[in-house]
Amino acid sequence: MLADMTDVPDAFGRLWTPHRMAYIKGENKPTGPGAGDGCPFCEIPKMDDADGLIVARGEVVYAVLNLYPYNSGHLMVCPYRHVPDYTDLDAAETAELAEFTQKALVTLREASGAQGFNVGMNLGHVAGAGIAAHLHQHVVPRWGGDTNFMPIVGQTRVLPQLLRDTRELLARAWPEKTS
After folding, report:
1. Which pTM does this prediction carry?
2. What is the CA radius of gyration of the chain?
3. Cα–Cα distance, 43 to 78 (Å, whole number)
4. Which residues contact 153 (CB under 8 A, 6 or more apart)?
5. Which InterPro entries match (predicted)?
6. Residue pLDDT, tens place only, 79-131
């Protein structure tokens, strides 16, 4: 009976987000806390930039688009080294992580007109880290009015651009190395 109704128009618009099912099911999540346990942040740097959604590479950190973004342009700055906590970073990693965070802000302002940002780390599973074993800092661009009923009522994020297109835009706008 329901199958007969699938092509009957009604008053509701529907957004299909089948790519989210991979996140919901936990696909591509590490099998353990070690670097060799399928950590995506250890695997991504082995890929070419387009396939890995890498925006920029540094000496000890890299900037990558979030595969499951909160907003368009949602970047993460990750050390290459597999460490779980901010206090585990050495001086060079700490400095370049800060530099890449600044560059992410500049890039997102220039490329997308971001009006504000949420910047931060979730350290540990209880703090909300989806992958707690490998430190990563989120840089989430924000615009006035970007929060609407969709995430609250529909549990859906509306992203106006494909990740590959966003990566290309941000990679072109990334500032050259300054040091």
Report:
1. 0.76
2. 18
3. 12
4. none
5. AP-4-A_phosphorylase, FHIT, HIT-like, HIT-like_sf
6. 999 999 999 999 999 999 999 999 999 999 999 999 999 999 999 999 988 89
